[in-house]
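Structure Section — protein described below
Tokens — whole-number codes for backbone shape
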Amino acid sequence: NGVVRDRIRMAIGGHALVTIILDEADEALGDPWVETMGLPEIGKHGKPLAEAIEAELGAFIAKAGARILRDDDKLDEAIRRVTRQVAMEEVGKKPEVTIVVSRLTDS
């Protein structure tokens, strides 16, 4: 069953929630926000894990091309990859990642 498998993966690897807000021009409003569960709070470099992930995601978003920022699937995959990579480097776990991209629109 998929639900049970997802719960087992979260229990083993932890979970990260990533939130980002993009404006009408697909530019980030502020920095990405990360909340973690089931992961150590401090990474191997002595910095809070959530802050390390946020910093890396902020750098990624700043240099990401418009093609990635416009495409929700590509953006989700890139955010997931960066989040898991940083978590693996910092605490040795690849968490399940939930991504919330909020887009502002002209209306």
The chain has four helices and three strands. The CA atoms of residues 22 and 28 lie 4 Å apart.
